[in-house]
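As promised in the previous annual report, we have extended the structural survey to additional targets. Below is the entry for Pyrroline-5-carboxylate reductase.
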Amino acid sequence: MRMSEMTGSEAIAFVGGGNMTRSLVGGLIARGVPSGRISVSEPQEALRNGLASDFGVRVFSDNDNAVAAAPLVLLAVKPQMMRAVCEQLAGRVDDAVVVSIAAGITCRQLQRWLGAARDVVRCMPNTPALIGAGAIGLYAKPTTSEASRAAVERVLSAAGVCAWVPEEAQIDAVTALSGSGPAYAFLLAEAMQHAAVQLGLSQEVAGALTR
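The corresponding structure token record, generated without further manual editing, is:
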């Protein structure tokens, strides 16, 4: 099925079963997406078993079975692993929209490694996305269809607010703003809690009031 024909009820494949995948899968399940529509490839058995047990999704140790016939594929692997993963998937995701959450890997690189993949989308989630309260920057080439964009946003909105940027270079600004920004808020909260303890409040009270 081509992405332009997607109705919102097709298969979704994740390559990589780490924290971000768990967050997105959990959000999708909570929104009523059937677990049978979701597949995840993950080499670590413990992570596979956890996803299958907690969410009932289909899990695989290899990428080929996970992405088979899926019109939407999310690459949730570390940047240093991305080239090898893409080259292994080349020819298998040509008709899918491929979404990368890896920082610093451009659309041009992704398309070169994937081969004939038509639609490639970059996204930059942040740490609060792990609890469904994130802010996610997205970029797609101008040739990417509205149907493809909508399909990507339906999935990623499970982790928080989505915002599209018109130029790929702006993803770097997203990384600086929403990607790194929460760390400064956490640092401020930690300093406030420490100061409150110094003023005589207990750790429990200071923590509750800071949060």
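The chain has nine helices and eight strands. The CA atoms of residues 126 and 145 lie 25 Å apart. These points will be discussed at the next consortium meeting with the crystallography subgroup.
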